[in-house]
Amino acid sequence: MRERVVVAAAVTLVAISVIVGLLVRNSGEPGRIHEGDAFGVEDGSYEIGIPTAHVDDDVWYFAPGITNRSSEKVTLEDVRPGTLPDGIAFVEARLFDKDVFVTGVPMSWDSSGGSAGDDPSSKPSTEVRGYTVLPGQTLPAEKIVYLHVRITTTKRPLMSEGVEFIYEQDGKRYSQTLSANLTIAAASPKR
After folding, report:
1. The pTM is what?
2. Of 42, 44, 90, 159, which is least packed with CB atoms within 10 Å of its CB?
3. How far is Cα 191 from Cα 37, in angstroms, rounded to an integer?
């Protein structure tokens, strides 16, 4: 009887040790997103102004270029606007081959003011999730990321500030926001 109690106590101690060990090892906050710097300090930023977008219009604009300045590969999980005001709804980010835009890559496109031939929704694309950027590699080289948003209000101006890149590197998740602003401006007065 005493041996059973000793064995049960030993098994309990081993189980507690294993559980505590797992908790300590996994306390690296698996869902936590760290502040990233794989894309280095930006050399510049851009502003895109669109005066032709109306309510329910789709707007596509390209994400800033990135270069993996770290010594390890980066695998993209998501690309999205940094901030969004009420009136702009984020739809998705897509990865395109640059050569599908036969007349050149437009900086932005919207349903009311864009040429039908440049409509990104009519071009083949893939998810950004899973795309790997090797050390020293630049995006866009052959590929480009477009963000797709929808206008849901008549209020103007509307501004989305920054573009956030969520990525995985060496088993950890990171977020880095680059400067790139989209402004849905009031329509220019007709002359």
Report:
1. 0.81
2. 44
3. 47
